[in-house]
Amino acid sequence: MTDTTSAPTARKAGVVAPRLSGTVRIVGAGLLGASVGHALRAKGVDVVLTDASPAQLRLAVDYGAGRLAEDDDTPALIVVAVPPDVTADVIEAELARFPDAVVTDVASVKLEPFRTLQARGVDLTRYIGSHPLAGRERGGAISARADLFIGRPWVVCRDGETKASDLALVEALALDVGAMPLEMTPEEHDRSVALTSHVPQVVASLLAARLAGAEEGALRLAGQGVRDTTRIAASAPELWVQILGANAGPVVEILDALAADLGEISDALREPGAPGARRVVAETIRQGNDGVDRLPGKHGQNQRFESLIVMIDDTPGQLGRLFGELGELGVNVEDLRLEHSPGAQFGLAEISVEPATLHGAITGLQERGWRIAGNTND
């Protein structure tokens, strides 16, 4: 049943019509589920929510992520957004309850639930696993955002039995929330996220754990480098126990290779003057450069930008003024990092720009009174 009074106006001025039609049922009203709800409702899609936690469900509804599910709802698409350890159970239950609906899920591991359902003999013709590569350090409905998926990859795992119409439905979901659908097998997906998401989480957590017992004086020296490399260490342990356990094989393979690399550079640094030691260190840093160069940048391009560091007084409006004057100079800001020095009344803004605009940006900002603390050409 569609409650037209609670759904947003479907065709507001300036809003592109959704690809999806009918009701979308979301099981799990946490960060991902509620964010999908917000994004679809902004397009005018009828979204119904359900969650094992009544408090979480009510919070998501109060924030506008959807309406409460009712017994006579007939969803065309079901999105399962529950913790990994119950994903397979919920998928099985939803397939049985709604025999005409297509079921997808947003779990960060794809092979383990698929194999579990296969082993149970569940008919998976109407199930298509998927995974949006998006998230935040904080979870729950209160952290959900309609723009969470914009520009982010959304992996769709089809198989030989997947109907074209069902596949189109899941891809429409990804496109309606602003994501970029990308087809992979479950095996390809799990190997990929082990490298780009799961191992980085372990590495960040291990490094951040070193800070727990560090002297206070050492922590005062913490700069942007350690903040960048430990940012995701604030993630929820309960969730990551499930994710890492479900994708243990690919994660262990990469961790073993990383441990060997760490052992090699440790051996080199034990005797940094020994023949070949400096080369090991240099090659380690160089290979890291090569890896960073391969990471997709803005608009998916593998493109390196130049950067300049601008000193900004810690007063209201300074960052906005800086951006405005860069715009007047015809300089587009490709990326931005901010760093505050403890106890200082200023910050450092590291701004990435197109190489061809670096010199003009530096000269123009200096003429306007900005202090340049450094750039990539120094």
UniProtKB/TrEMBL annotation:
<dbReference type="GO" id="GO:0008977">
    <property type="term" value="F:prephenate dehydrogenase (NAD+) activity"/>
</dbReference>
<dbReference type="InterPro" id="IPR036291">
    <property type="entry name" value="NAD(P)-bd_dom_sf"/>
</dbReference>
<keyword id="KW-0560">Oxidoreductase</keyword>
<dbReference type="InterPro" id="IPR050812">
    <property type="entry name" value="Preph/Arog_dehydrog"/>
</dbReference>
<dbReference type="InterPro" id="IPR003099">
    <property type="entry name" value="Prephen_DH"/>
</dbReference>
<dbReference type="InterPro" id="IPR046825">
    <property type="entry name" value="PDH_C"/>
</dbReference>
<dbReference type="InterPro" id="IPR045865">
    <property type="entry name" value="ACT-like_dom_sf"/>
</dbReference>
<keyword id="KW-0057">Aromatic amino acid biosynthesis</keyword>
<feature type="domain" description="Prephenate/arogenate dehydrogenase">
    <location>
        <begin position="22"/>
        <end position="299"/>
    </location>
</feature>
<comment type="pathway">
    <text>Amino-acid biosynthesis; L-tyrosine biosynthesis; (4-hydroxyphenyl)pyruvate from prephenate (NAD(+) route): step 1/1.</text>
</comment>
<comment type="similarity">
    <text>Belongs to the prephenate/arogenate dehydrogenase family.</text>
</comment>
<feature type="domain" description="ACT">
    <location>
        <begin position="307"/>
        <end position="378"/>
    </location>
</feature>
<dbReference type="Pfam" id="PF20463">
    <property type="entry name" value="PDH_C"/>
</dbReference>
<dbReference type="InterPro" id="IPR008927">
    <property type="entry name" value="6-PGluconate_DH-like_C_sf"/>
</dbReference>
<protein>
    <recommendedName>
        <fullName>Prephenate dehydrogenase</fullName>
        <ecNumber>1.3.1.12</ecNumber>
    </recommendedName>
</protein>
<keyword id="KW-0827">Tyrosine biosynthesis</keyword>
<keyword id="KW-0028">Amino-acid biosynthesis</keyword>
<keyword id="KW-0520">NAD</keyword>
<dbReference type="InterPro" id="IPR002912">
    <property type="entry name" value="ACT_dom"/>
</dbReference>
<dbReference type="Pfam" id="PF02153">
    <property type="entry name" value="PDH_N"/>
</dbReference>
<dbReference type="InterPro" id="IPR046826">
    <property type="entry name" value="PDH_N"/>
</dbReference>
